[in-house]
Amino acid sequence: MTTLSNDAQLEPPLLEVLDLVTYYPVRRSFIDSLQRRPRQWAHAVDGISFDLYGGRMLALVGESGCGKTTTAQSLLRMVEPTSGTIRLEGRDITHLRQRELRPLRRTMQMVYQDPYESLDPRFRGRQTVEEPMLVHGIGSGRAERRALVDELLERVGLTPPHLYADRYPHEMSGGQRQRLAIAASLVLNPRLLVTDEPVSMLDVSVRAGVLELLDSLRREFTMGVLMITHDLSTASHFADDIAVMYLGRIVERGPAKEVVRHPRHPYTRALLSVVPARDPRRRTTPHILQGEAPDPVAVPTGCRFASRCPFVIDACREHDPVLDPVSGAAGHEVACIRADEIESAALPEVVGK
Amino acid sequence: MSLLEVVDLNVWFDLPGSGRLHAVQGVDLAVERGERLGLVGESGCGKTTVMMALMGLLPSSATVSGEIRLEGEDILAGGEDTIRPHRWVDMAMVFQGAMNAFNPVQTIGRQIVEPMELHGVASGQAARRRTSELLEMVGIPASAAKRYPHEFSGGMRQRAALAMALACDPKVLFADEPTTALDVMVQAQILMRLVELADELDLALVLVTHDLPVVAQACDRAMVMYAGRVAEQADMDVLFHDPRHPYTELLFAATPDLYGEDHVVSIPGNPPRLDQKLVGCPFAPRCPKAMDVCRREEPLPLAIGTGHVAACHLNSPAREATA
């Protein structure tokens, strides 16, 4: 979408993530602990860094198990990061205690995938939006809160507001529920909005509307949006930047259109090749990766994608690649030692069996 | 004579208390051997209900009318008695969430053998041999027959469900959102296999989904449903490049394409309630091209070209004459 002017880029990023690592302990059996076998760890997020500026939307894409949801949860401190630094508006929040975090919860909000589960079924629309105000002491009186609720409902497209204020979630469609959840997250005027698959549960006909709402809100409030999604078409249409994750690492990132049109990492290329085209005349040829991603408990040395990569050479299994800038494409980075040589090489078609 | 032909299919559901919901309202459909048909539309449009009616698997609160002709025989006429001999034998289906399609305490192999024995297709050694063949056909090693459903990944279970559906060598295969809950890579893989198998076995494949790009790539023809009715049906290429119903056009416009530059737009409003009698075109309240006549009269399905039918007043000859 729009690129920020150079002046804006000079501002410090809203969110800075540096070398974030989140491991989950793997359950040991009783016998193992008696024998003092070392505790094992699942490397859910294994050293990722990125910046997010106010007013921008970053899409984190990848298959299930790649660590995209754990990344979001670590940022919001819903799970404890193992190491690394998270800075929100310049302030290090990586190790803040829960009590110190509470005021920060106003700054960062989350919109969940399933608006059927995330809303309290006993709350009418008005209560859903009013609840965070009561918790955080916003609005001096009932009348003021009421006016604010109406304003927010109207802003998210639930018009006329009085109609939706009195409805229970079960009286609303999926799209309306998701709009209500967004309204509730906006009450506190957050700087960062994290959304986990915000439209995957919704009907095709209303998805675009909810995404457009997020798009306009981030511009209006210069709010940073981190969108977790598996849908590359959605990411390419609505996000400014895309970061592709594989087994706890970002393997490629850059401006959304650039990543989609000129992918450099073999994983990104395979991922893009399986997205079906809307036009039946444009036949898509899926390049299907064989096997599964390695076990996050026993991460291989070298490139994590080596076991499934069609372009693998011996060096890949020894050398753990880091994100390097792609020459001639500002902001585009790829973690692949062969990115330059294989750029024009065709992906072999692996026929799915 | 078509392999499967449906004429004026209607389904009503009794609602708790009083009232009825007219879920499917006069659907006509025909599908041939070797053909792949997509059934698309928003949730609640009746696409799954059509499929369940054809399989005779609707709950007892449903009332069905119309004709369902399988190789000429009306299998709806005698109710369950006339459908049962064909279910799983001539017509089979793959459900939406393969997680729930299996009994957790029986091996996968046992559950594939079961329909074969039940319908007298094969038994004993022959049935086990066919199970091995079926599993390999869908891309699972034959040795996996001894495993239990929980030992399978989501993609493997969906493949096993496909093997089970193919057990009795059906002529028609229904697949209801067969890949929706899966990862993109697995989704593409299973879809490819499904299409290849449909070709190899000369099956009529009916793919029920809300995912237009999947249908665009996998099917020859599609039927767009809205509010229990067929809005438009045509060859996939015609549907995309020359849609004659505004709903079809808007549905494509609401679907983002990886390389598309066009603005993705949602369709305002909601589908109508089906427990009340509809007057005029059901899509009129959401249609940007609605005219007075649309709110008064129901548009009837009109043939526009070969195999291309749309129910929209914009196509009526009277309108073209006055225009």
What does this structure look like?
The complex is a heterodimer of chains A (353) and B (323). Chain A contains 13 helices and twelve strands. By secondary structure, chain A is an alpha/beta fold. In chain A, the strands form two sheets. An eight-stranded mixed β-sheet of chain A has the order 6-7-8-3-9-10-12-11, with helices on both faces. Chain A has a four-stranded antiparallel β-sheet with strand order 2-1-4-5. The two termini of chain A are 39 Å apart. The N terminus of chain A is likely disordered. Chain B is α/β, with parallel strands linked by helices. Helix content of chain B is 31%, strand content 23%. In chain B, the strands form two sheets. Chain B has an eight-stranded mixed β-sheet, sandwiched between helices. A four-stranded antiparallel β-sheet of chain B has the order 2-1-4-5, with helices on one face. Classes of the chains: A alpha/beta (353), B alpha/beta (323). At the A-B interface, helix 9, helix 10 and helix 12 of A face helix 6, helix 7, helix 8 and helix 9 of B.
